[in-house]
């Protein structure tokens, strides 16, 4: 609901019920009436206090009261939200079950859900999450070549599926990797249900309370969630123009028993930075020296808009210290959930053991579809189409952004994200509140930090909406920044 | 390799190397030459001692030596196997990574892998695991109606997919459940990648070290693996003709802080027993009294061959204490990996949070395919076809089995398993060794027990092979039992 509507939350000063209780009860009532939808973000305490003409403390108390009743939840740096199932939490006695829970729910950020919610909201121009540009979406082509493939081999769906993956797809992938200087034998490759499942499997195999992982700051939100869910601690390192700061890295490796270093070295999410060849080699030396694994997440290295990026860590690794994750989400589409994990045999064999107990194997139907598509060599052509489409989009972005002196975005050499600087006087979360009201979503920089940095940064994904909507979305940003802030970019 | 070949493992009594070392080294050599395939089961110590004409102790020492080198692994009640990746375990320095592992690999049985391996071996008549009978396999029909569906709605694959599941499929499922007296609102339903993922999610949300789960003995192997992987303990209860023994159940509920009771009350795997209505009601009373959840696994209640079974626990539950798992694997085919989880909203909302961090959501392609199939009402007709086909198969089973006085199988009123008694003088594992050599696989009863029962029982799945192969497989069993054993069934 828009800010304006909050002033309809009428309070009665003469009532015996304290004001904070009245607020809490009205909001609960609105939720039950469906007037406030689950997931709605409440205005900040400060602003709600202004709107309702009460003290900040009253709002704080009201929020505490609603939290206790399970009507809202709040999250550091993310705001306060109406709970997904406020009513049921109490009516259905699931409070009984709440204290049966052992999963470290506390360790989970709400930002991921928030970003997914934006993606599902048809009224929003979705610059928060990644999707395949409609003008080059391969869905129809893929499903057509899939059904042709099935007509030719009707027996396919009757074959059992190995946990490690559909064998013909593993063979496609092996060749695909070979063309990228990664030599893997079939027992070093497994198919996972998206890179996220790969990270979950790796986390389960290696991590537990008391373990440490190193990752970039800012970095991939879903990865840090997967790591912390095990009880492990994350050590964050910032980046310079050559990638993760190597001096700080060795420093930490000397101090902490680190299980692995998680990196996105090529067209890094969100900064777009690509690690230099020199630093890649140094990193591999350190991995060898300190006997620590590297988990290389490589979702978009083929989406380069200038020259090809430097070789992957996996292709440079001579000591088998790298676990390599290659998702097809950025090349095909995210909802497909097919990714590849490459690791030493002794690790893959154990990850397969775990996956077998998690979901037996990834869906056959999808694996056969991707195989049908890959085996006909269509993926290369498709990726070339993507590069062209995204180059065009980046030119558009450049045109629109350059009109705004208060918004400075790094136009990346590859990948799917823009990393932008806002005026010091404007926090990205404040801008998000305003943008959402005007129908545009993005990710505030501080959501991607484990140490509270990047309050004045934002991540814009430029691949999901249509070109027109992308243009409109960026213009909306310009308007908001122009209206509200004349300050210099921070 | 067949038993005969083991005598080619020649030992040299004059050599300085002790005999156990010689054995270990020869076997390692055979593995490296590819002469022994990963997953091969070694003969029992007793029998290998006979073949090689050495003492039992020599074999024990050889096995210990090979285990230490990572050449073989052995599992209580299952035997000793060549490791999946014996070579790599050492060559690729993954021994370094081994002691980085935190996942409780020790808690995982090898039986699941063994059963899957049988399913993937084209030379075996697979009576160990479940599949859809080729004569009624819906794969082709399903993929055709899927591609028609996509042609009509080409936009489908471009839609983002919610973690909770593809909404139209959730709506199909809601109606589907309603027809089975289960009333669920859409927020109480989620789509999971097979019932196994449902069990994994439930285990992660509720279980940790020090927790207790109650389940049937014998019971579903993958379920006990999912539970123990969290560090939780399983309390096992045997069944009588009305299902799980309710007296022992209350006894345990009084003594232990049980998180949930996991049950397969209709056409139980493996015994085929269906819990009586009286006991279902009593069970629900106990769940309420002791504030314990019930997890009802219901994979095959629509595969009844006589009268319809009694209503599900979920449909009888008035206090919202039941989490219901309905897999489509037995109705469509296992490799599809689509199942439904129904639970109180407050639980589903948390399971969705966890799933989001595990694989974001289940594959869109498959969910759309199942929706296309369900929405056209084809599933009902298909299940009727399955019933007819499986009735016919059970008549065949009856004919073949009844010729053998030493093999007594319970012909079930529904489901996909036969539970058979062998002569006391013949253990199911011994029979399995002999059957594998003759190209037939099944599951020994003790693999399904957590307390070492059912050594002379076996589970036969009658749905996977063609009718001819099923007949042949059963006849092979008859032959082996006739040749080797005249004893009474145990």
Automatic annotation (TrEMBL), chains A, B:
Zinc-finger: present as a keyword of the record? Answer: no
Q: Which domain of life is it from?
A: Bacteria
Originating organism: Brevibacillus panacihumi W25
Please list the cofactors this protein needs. pyridoxal 5'-phosphate
- What is this organism's lineage? Bacteria, Bacillati, Bacillota, Bacilli, Bacillales
What is the official name of this protein in its record?
Answer: HTH gntR-type domain-containing protein
Residue ranges of the HTH gntR-type domain?
17-85
One Pfam family cited in the UniProt record for this chain: Aminotran_1_2
Q: Which SUPFAM superfamilies match?
A: PLP-dependent transferases (SSF53383), Winged helix' DNA-binding domain (SSF46785)
One Gene Ontology molecular-function label: pyridoxal phosphate binding
Share what the entry says about its subunit structure, partners included.
Homodimer.
Q: Which family does it belong to?
A: Belongs to the class-I pyridoxal-phosphate-dependent aminotransferase family. In the C-terminal section; belongs to the class-I pyridoxal-phosphate-dependent aminotransferase family.
Question: Keywords in UniProt for this one?
Answer: Aminotransferase, DNA-binding, Pyridoxal phosphate, Transcription, Transcription regulation, Transferase
Is this entry keyworded Transferase? yes
């Amino acid at each position: 609901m828009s800010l304006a509507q909050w002033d309809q939350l009428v309070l009665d000063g003469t009532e015996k019920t304290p004001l904070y209780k009245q607020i809490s009860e009205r909001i609960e009532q609105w939720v039950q009436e469906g007037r406030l939808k689950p997931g709605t973000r409440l205005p900040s305490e400060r602003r709600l206090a202004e709107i309702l003409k009460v003290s900040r403390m009253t709002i704080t108390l009201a929020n505490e009261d609603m939290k206790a009743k399970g009507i809202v939840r709040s999250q550091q740096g993310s705001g306060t939200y109406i709970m997904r199932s406020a009513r049921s939490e109490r009516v259905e006695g699931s409070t009984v079950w709440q204290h049966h829970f052992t999963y470290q729910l506390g360790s989970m950020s709400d930002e991921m859900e928030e970003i997914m919610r934006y993606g599902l909201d048809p009224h929003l121009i979705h610059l928060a999450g990644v999707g395949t540009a409609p003008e080059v979406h391969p869905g129809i082509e893929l499903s057509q070549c899939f059904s042709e493939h099935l007509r030719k081999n009707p027996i396919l769906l009757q074959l059992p599926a190995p946990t490690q993956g559909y064998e013909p797809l593993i063979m496609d992938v092996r060749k695909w990797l070979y063309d990228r200087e990664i030599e893997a034998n079939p027992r070093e490759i497994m198919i996972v249900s998206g890179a996220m499942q790969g990270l979950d499997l790796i986390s389960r195999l290696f991590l537990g309370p008391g373990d440490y992982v190193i990752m970039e700051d800012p970095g991939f939100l879903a990865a840090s969630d997967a790591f912390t869910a095990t009880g492990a601690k994350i050590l964050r390192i910032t980046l310079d123009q050559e990638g993760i700061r190597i001096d700080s890295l060795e420093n930490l490796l000397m101090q902490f028993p680190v299980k692995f270093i998680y990196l996105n070295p090529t067209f890094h999410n969100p900064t777009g930075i690509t690690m230099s060849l020199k630093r890649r080699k140094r990193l591999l030396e350190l991995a060898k020296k300190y006997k620590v694994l590297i988990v290389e997440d490589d979702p978009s290295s083929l989406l380069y808009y200038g020259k090809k990026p430097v070789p992957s860590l996996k292709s440079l690794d001579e000591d088998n210290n790298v676990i390599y994750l290659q998702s097809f989400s950025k090349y095909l589409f995210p909802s497909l959930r097919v990714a590849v994990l490459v690791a030493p045999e002794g690790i893959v064999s154990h990850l397969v053991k775990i996956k077998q107990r998690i979901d037996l194997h990834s869906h056959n139907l999808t694996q056969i579809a991707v195989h049908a598509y890959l085996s006909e060599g269509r993926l290369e052509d498709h990726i070339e189409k993507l590069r062209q489409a995204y180059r065009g989009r980046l030119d558009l972005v450049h045109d629109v952004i350059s009109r705004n002196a208060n918004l400075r975005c790094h136009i990346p050499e590859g990948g799917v994200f823009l990393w932008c600087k806002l005026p010091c006087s404007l926090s990205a979360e404040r801008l998000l509140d305003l943008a959402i009201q005007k129908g545009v979503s993005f990710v505030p920089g501080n959501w991607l930090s484990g140490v509270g940095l990047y309050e004045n940064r934002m991540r814009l994904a430029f691949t999901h909406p249509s070109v027109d909507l992308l243009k409109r979305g960026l213009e909306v940003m310009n308007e908001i920044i122009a209206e509200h802030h004349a300050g210099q970019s921070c």
